[in-house]
Specification:
Elements lengths: L2 H10 E10 L6 E9 L5 E4 L1 H25 L7 H11 L8 E8 L3 E11 L6 E11 L6 E2 L10 E6 L8 E4 L4 E4 L10 E13 L2 E7 L11 E3 L5 E13 L2 E10 H10 L5 E2 L1
Parallel strand pairs: 7-16
Antiparallel strand pairs: 1-2, 1-4, 2-3, 3-6, 5-6, 8-11, 8-13, 9-10, 11-12, 12-15, 13-14, 14-15
Length: 275
C-alpha cells in the first residue's frame, strides 16, 4: 500500500547523526534521528528537541576544551588530584553521565555543508533547519502538503526514519582525547518504514494539531515524516507516550500535525509544495 509513497519519501528523508562521549569514558555513543526536506533550497523539518541538541554541541565541546587545557596546565605534583577535583566541581563534571563531547552530521544531504541556521517553534516540538551546501545536492524531491487531507482516527499511515543507528564512521582518538567522524565506515543508516493507524487526534479551534499512532516505535523515528498512501504529509513524529491498557504498558507514537508544520513554514517564509 505504501510502496510508492516510501519510494518517494526515501529521496527527501535524511538522518541526523550524533556521537557523544561522557566524562571519564572513551566509549563513543552513536544516535540517529530523522529530518525531511520541504523544498529544494535546503530547508528541512525535524523535532525541536533534536535541533536543541545540535545547538548545544558547540557549547558542550567548547566547555570540555577549556577544561582540558586548564587541566593540562596543572603541575604534576601531589596537589594534582585536589586541583582536578576543584576543576570538576567548577565545570560541573561530578554528575554521573555528564556529556563532555557531542558532534553531529547531516549525512547524504550535500557533498559539503557550508552553513546552517535553525528556527524553533515556541510551542510545538518542531524546528526548521536550513542548510547551505556546495559540491552537489544529494537528496531528491521534497514532501507534499495538502489543505484537504486531514489526519483522522482509523486512517492507515506510514513513517520513514532511522530506528536502528546503523553507522560506524566515527572513532575515539586517545592521543587527542577526542571523538571525530572518520572517512571509513558506514556513513548512512538504513531507512526503515513503519506502518501504523491513527488512534486519536488532538484539535485546537477545530483544527488538528497532533495525533497518536500505533505500530513500531523508536527514538530514531523522531523527526520522521508521516504520510498517507498517496505520499501526502499527515504530520511528523515527535516522540512516544506509554499508557496502561488492562494492566499492560502500551507505547504509542506521538506526532505533530502537518497543518502546524505548514503554518510554521509560512511564518518563516519557507517555500513548500501543495497538491
Amino acid at each position: 500500500m505504501f510502496a510508492d509513497a516510501m519510494e518517494k519519501a526515501a529521496g527527501y528523508v535524511r538522518p541526523v547523526k550524533t556521537i557523544a562521549r561522557i566524562y571519564k569514558s572513551d566509549e563513543v555513543i552513536p544516535q540517529a534521528a530523522t529530518m525531511f526536506f520541504v523544498n529544494r533550497e535546503g530547508a528541512a523539518v525535524t523535532c525541536r528537541h533534536i535541533a536543541e541538541e545540535i545547538m548545544r554541541a558547540g557549547r558542550i565541546n567548547a566547555r570540555y576544551e577549556s577544561f582540558r587545557k586548564e587541566l593540562f596546565s596543572l603541575p604534576a605534583d601531589r596537589s594534582l588530584r585536589i586541583e582536578t577535583n576543584r576543576m570538576e566541581r567548577r565545570f560541573d563534571y561530578l554528575k554521573g553521565e555528564t556529556t563532555i563531547q557531542l558532534r553531529y552530521s547531516f549525512a547524504d544531504c550535500y557533498e559539503k555543508i557550508e552553513r546552517l541556521s535553525i528556527d524553533m517553534h515556541p510551542v510545538y516540538d518542531l524546528a526548521v533547519i536550513r542548510l547551505q551546501g556546495s559540491g552537489g545536492m544529494r537528496y531528491s524531491g521534497s514532501c507534499t502538503f495538502s489543505q484537504v487531507q486531514k489526519p483522522r482516527p482509523g486512517m492507515s499511515v506510514c513513517r520513514l526514519g532511522y530506528p536502528v543507528t546503523g553507522f560506524d564512521d566515527y572513532d575515539f582518538f586517545p592521543d587527542r582525547d577526542d571523538i571525530q567522524w572518520t572517512v571509513s565506515g558506514a556513513h548512512v543508516p538504513v531507512q526503515i518504514p513503519a506502518e501504523g493507524m491513527i488512534i486519536r487526534t488532538f484539535t485546537e479551534e477545530g483544527r488538528a494539531k497532533g495525533f497518536v499512532l500505533s505500530g513500531l516505535c523508536g527514538s530514531g523515528y523522531c523527526g520522521a515524516p508521516v504520510v498517507n498512501k498517496d505520499g501526502v504529509l499527515m504530520g511528523m513524529v515527535t516522540g512516544t507516550s506509554t499508557e496502561i491498557v488492562d494492566g499492560t504498558p502500551v507505547t504509542y507514537t506521538e506526532c505533530v500535525s502537518a497543518s502546524v508544520i505548514r503554518e510554521f513554514l509560512q511564518e518563516k517564509n519557507v517555500i513548500y509544495s501543495e497538491n
